[in-house]
């Protein structure tokens, strides 16, 4: 039986061997939800980068600079980190250079994996099918917040574990904990997340509608996959 594990924070990555695994990077609020939305609306590629300078350098090569720091759009950047900025005809064909506080850092730390895909509730069923049909053991890497654990990424991990429970065995207790949490929260994830640190942070920035959208399952079928450091659909 294939196995599934959950890394609850990128700070714990050193505990996992990733060379032979499919890694699913998740940052529900909001980096990986933006990426999935952008590909669903026809962006050409997303180059995830860890720092702002690197991102701005890519602007000179025709990339659209995208992302945030501490939830806020970065001065001089073209786009922020709301999925609603990555919808519609205007994003079709764009090459995005993307940097965020946690999501792109988690991608960076996952680069040694056999393969890296991007997960969110928006493409949940596609991700589950992909993992089911694939040959590799699975590690879900939760982006968290500055090294700390968060609820929303753990809920996504739990949803995947729950949906694959008859096919993939848990490697340790983190997948079981995530699965239990998801089963408690799944009836109303928006309500469940009201007490979470990042929802409070986003509310302070007056960001409300992104939250509900980002926990809505199966809006899109696309699975972004990392190839030579670039995400492609
Ligand atoms: O940290 C990240 O990658 C972001 O998704 C955080 S925020 O939702 O834009 O604040």
List the helices and strands and how they pair.
Blueprint: E1 2-7, E2 21-26, H1 31-40, E3 45-48, H2 52-59, E4 64-69, E5 72-73, E6 95-99, H3 103-109, E7 115-119, H4 124-133, E8 137-142, H5 151-163, E9 168-170, H6 173-185, H7 189-192, H8 197-204, H9 209-214, E10 225-227, E11 230-232
Parallel strand pairs: 1-8, 1-9, 2-7, 2-8, 3-6, 4-6
Antiparallel strand pairs: 4-5, 10-11
The chain binds (2R)-3-sulfolactic acid.
Residues 27, 29-31, 68, 71, 81, 100-103, 143 line the site of (2R)-3-sulfolactic acid.
| Shape category | globular
CATH fold topology: putative 2-phosphosulfolactate phosphatase
Q: Classify the secondary structure makeup into a structural class.
A: alpha/beta
Number of helices: 9
**Strand content range:** 15-25%
CATH top level class name: Alpha Beta
H-E order: EEHEHEEEHEHEHEHHHHEE
Which ligands appear in the coordinates? Answer: (2R)-3-sulfolactic acid
- Taking pLDDT < 50 over at least 5 consecutive residues as the criterion, the unreliable ranges are none
Determine Rg (CA atoms, Å).
16 Å
């Amino acid at each position: 039986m294939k196995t599934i594990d959950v890394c609850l924070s990128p700070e714990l990555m050193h505990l996992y061997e990733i060379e032979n695994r499919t890694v699913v990077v998740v940052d529900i609020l909001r980096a990986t939800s933006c990426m999935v939305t952008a590909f669903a609306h026809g962006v050409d590629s997303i180059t995830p980068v860890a720092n702002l300078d690197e991102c701005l350098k890519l602007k000179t090569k025709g990339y659209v600079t995208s992302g945030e720091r501490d939830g806020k759009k970065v001065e001089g950047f073209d786009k922020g980190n709301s999925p609603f900025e990555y919808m519609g005809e205007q994003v079709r064909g764009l090459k995005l250079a993307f940097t965020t506080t946690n999501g792109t850092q988690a991608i960076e730390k996952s680069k040694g994996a056999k393969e890296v895909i991007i997960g969110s509730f928006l493409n949940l069923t596609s991700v589950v099918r992909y993992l089911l049909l694939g040959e590799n053991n699975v590690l879900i890497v939760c982006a968290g917040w500055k090294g700390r654990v968060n609820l929303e990424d753990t809920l996504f991990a739990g949803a995947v574990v729950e949906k694959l429970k008859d096919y993939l065995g848990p490697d340790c207790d983190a997948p079981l904990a995530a699965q239990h949490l998801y089963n408690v929260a799944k009836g109303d994830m928006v309500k469940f997340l009201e007490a979470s640190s990042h929802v409070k942070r986003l509310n302070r920035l007056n960001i409300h509608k992104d939250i509900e959208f980002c926990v809505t399952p199966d809006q899109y079928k696309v699975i972004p996959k990392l190839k030579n450091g670039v995400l492609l659909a």
